[in-house]
Amino acid sequence: MRFMFVGDSMTIGRAGDYTWRYRMWQHLNRCFGGPYKIVGPRTELYEATADAAVSDAYADPAFPAPARRHLAGWGEGWLHMAPLIRETVAATKADVLLVSLGLIDLGFYTDSSQTAANTAAFIAEARTANPHVRAVLMPVIPNVRALSDAPFATECQRFNELLAKTVADHDSAPSPLLLASTPESYDVHSDTYDGTHPGPSGEHKLAAAFADAMDQAWGLGGPYEPSR
Predict the structure, then answer these.
(1) pTM higher than 0.85
(2) Sign of CA dihedral 196, 200, 206, 209
(3) How far is CA 167 from CA 99, 117, 130, 215, in A?
(4) 137 within a domain of the structure (yes/no)
(5) What would you report as the CA-atom Rg of the chain, rounded to the nearest whole angstrom?
């Protein structure tokens, strides 16, 4: 089975991060009951000094190169990934997409309705490449901007409602969709390093949300247990 991580800055991570992708790799190694691969066209982290994804400085240098693969970008959202996902799924033969997007869209590019439309387009494009692709979609998680910007907080809440409807409307037996639960007790003060991007505890909570959704709905892997 081939897994692909799709996301924005919270998924690609910055130089020096472990990333929730790393935590998920540890989980799959420990719990997945069969052969698997992590796939994707990119491997790098974001480097702030270059303002580009050019770093390979993961917090654990032993994180193997094949497991670093992803389709994530700093400043990229559903708007950017929907046009890429068909060719990427076709090229990588991805079976399961673990997707965390939406915050950057709502913050800079699109409103909740437009973002939901791009989500539906993403799903359709992925299925064009693989009619049996599965996907787990993460709602927009708590973030510091939503604490002080009431209209933005409203858009985040509305998009999460539309995302749940999109998952329900587009779920199908040949190509099942799951809505991950917002990580329990996620705290922008203790689970992030800047109010938005996850630190180690936040990385574990994001990985757990994906892992537990797959375990409970599809019997893939098992319950998430942090490695460290």
Answers:
(1) yes
(2) negative
(3) 12, 12, 17, 18
(4) yes
(5) 16
